[in-house]
């Protein structure tokens, strides 16, 4: 009888052609998906010197969250090189922008035994760190076989995801049992991982609270303010997902005003053109941020189609509506907004960041909609109430500071395993 992991391997092999077809499909909007395909199968042109610490951050959000931890690892372990792996081109590009060329970057291979073996044999890491919910059975088993400590850090698991994993309990339990340690964001996450079979679980906090949220330069922010014009009420729809732009624009008559400007920033860059087409179809005048030109007084939308400017957007906006929460996507990270003192409005769907969202609402840093259709009742009054916005902004800064410390906890854990391998 086939073991659960063998059945998983057979399915993975059968899906391999479709994985490359998916990369090709996604490359229609983001050509970078056509590059580095050899890395997806464990072939790498770079060979960093050893000893090596390896950290996997699947995409942009995980990469940004990892930055303070990466900086502290480099400071504490100057004799080690650092390898950062990703699954998306945007994550890889973000690493280049935020960390620089000193850290080696490549794609993590597909979770096939031969590809995983090539990856581990090629790089030979002393220690591996997987961020958030990257649970790959072959990768985890191969690290255990090679006696490479593998930690799942900044781990989170929503009730919805836990129920989905529970459908594959034998394989999930076997994989979690082979992880060296799971360091979760919250006690609720820890309880879910334990229920699924993880034997070594600890709570270390959320790295996103420790993100190096340095305010964009005054010159950058002043330049952006100059382009949008003075005397305008600016609200931000941050990291919107498919369907949410249409929802917001359906509510447009109740949200628009002559002195009001929406900065609309889709979550994924491959959707910038799609959202621009939607605005044209609805005959809503807009300017693309990538054009770097002033927003005329009669134009009500600035399409944020540039990368790496979210902090500047939070600084010029009076209020931010967090994308992914208006429709059932689970919500995007709200912590960057609160850290910069930007009042937050959340939709009803925040299960990906439930604890942080609940805590922000309790702290007075965020408001939650029971229904996205209620946004016209909440947003305009908040834009008109400067004192309330200031109070929410200060509450957001306090809320962020109170929850910091994950980097320190993780460094303590890392030190134990690096010392054991020395």
Q: What is this structure's SSE topology?
A:
Elements: H1 4-26, E1 52-56, H2 60-76, E2 81-86, H3 89-99, E3 104-107, H4 113-123, E4 127-131, H5 137-145, E5 150-155, H6 159-166, H7 169-178, E6 181-184, H8 187-196, E7 201-203, H9 218-228, E8 233-240, H10 244-250, H11 252-255, E9 260-266, H12 272-281, E10 286-288, E11 301-303, H13 310-316, E12 319-322, H14 335-339, E13 344-346, H15 354-363, E14 366-368, H16 375-384, H17 386-402, H18 406-421
Helix pairs in contact: 2-3, 4-5, 5-7, 9-13
Task: Explain what you see.
The chain has 422 residues and is α/β, with parallel strands linked by helices. The chain folds into two domains: 25-205 and 405-421, Rossmann fold, CATH 3.40.50; 218-402, Rossmann fold (3-Layer(aba) Sandwich). The protein contains 18 helices and 14 strands. It has helices at 4-26, 60-76, 89-99, 113-123, 137-145, 159-166, 169-178, 187-196, 218-228, 244-250, 252-255, 272-281, 310-316, 335-339, 354-363, 375-384, 386-402, 406-421, and strands spanning 52-56, 81-86, 104-107, 127-131, 150-155, 181-184, 201-203, 233-240, 260-266, 286-288, 301-303, 319-322, 344-346, 366-368. Strands 3-2-1-4-5-6-7 form a seven-stranded parallel β-sheet, sandwiched between helices. A seven-stranded parallel β-sheet has the order 10-11-9-8-12-13-14, with helices on both faces. Strand 2 (81-86), helix 3 (89-99) and strand 3 (104-107) form a beta-alpha-beta unit. Helix 9 packs across helix 13. The two termini are 41 Å apart.
């Amino acid at each position: 009888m086939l073991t659960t992991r063998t059945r998983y391997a057979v399915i993975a092999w059968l899906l391999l052609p479709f994985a490359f077809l998916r990369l090709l499909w996604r490359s229609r909007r983001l050509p970078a998906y056509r590059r580095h395909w050899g890395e997806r199968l464990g072939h790498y042109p770079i060979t960093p010197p050893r000893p090596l610490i390896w950290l996997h951050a699947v995409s942009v959000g995980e990469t940004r969250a990892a930055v303070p931890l990466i900086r502290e690892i480099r400071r504490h372990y100057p004799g080690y090189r650092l390898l950062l792996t990703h699954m998306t081109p945007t994550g890889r590009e973000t690493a280049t922008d935020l960390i620089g060329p000193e850290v080696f970057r490549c794609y993590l291979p597909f979770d096939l035994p031969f590809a995983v073996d090539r990856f581990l044999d090629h790089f030979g890491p002393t220690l591996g760190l997987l961020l958030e919910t990257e649970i790959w059975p072959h990768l985890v088993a191969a690290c255990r076989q090679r006696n490479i400590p593998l930690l799942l850090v900044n781990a989170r698991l929503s009730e919805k995801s836990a129920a989905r994993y529970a459908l594959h309990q034998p394989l999930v339990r076997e994989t979690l049992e082979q992880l060296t340690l799971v360091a979760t964001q919250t006690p609720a996450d820890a309880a879910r991982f334990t229920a699924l079979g993880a034997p070594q679980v600890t709570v270390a906090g959320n790295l996103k609270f420790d993100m190096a949220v340095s305010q964009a330069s005054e010159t950058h922010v002043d330049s952006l303010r100059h382009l949008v014009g003075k005397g305008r009420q600016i609200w931000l729809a941050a990291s919107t997902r498919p369907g949410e732009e249409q929802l917001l624009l359906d509510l447009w008559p109740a949200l628009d005003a002559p002195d009001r400007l929406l900065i609309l920033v889709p979550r994924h860059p491959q959707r910038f053109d799609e959202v621009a087409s939607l605005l044209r179809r609805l005959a809503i005048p807009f300017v693309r941020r990538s054009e770097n030109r002033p927003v005329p007084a009669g134009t009500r939308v600035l399409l944020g189609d540039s990368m790496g400017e979210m902090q500047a957007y939070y600084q010029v906006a009076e209020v931010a509506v967090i994308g992914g929460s208006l429709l059932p996507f689970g919500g995007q990270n709200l912590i960057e907004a609160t850290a910069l003192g930007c009042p937050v409005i959340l939709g009803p769907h925040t299960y990906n960041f439930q604890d942080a969202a609940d805590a922000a609402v309790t702290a007075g840093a965020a408001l939650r909609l029971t229904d996205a259709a209620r946004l016209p009742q909440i947003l305009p009054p908040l834009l008109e109430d400067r004192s309330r916005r200031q109070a929410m902004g200060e509450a957001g800064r306090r809320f962020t500071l109170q929850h910091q410390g994950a980097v320190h906890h993780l460094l303590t854990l890392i030190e134990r395993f690096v010392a054991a391998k020395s």
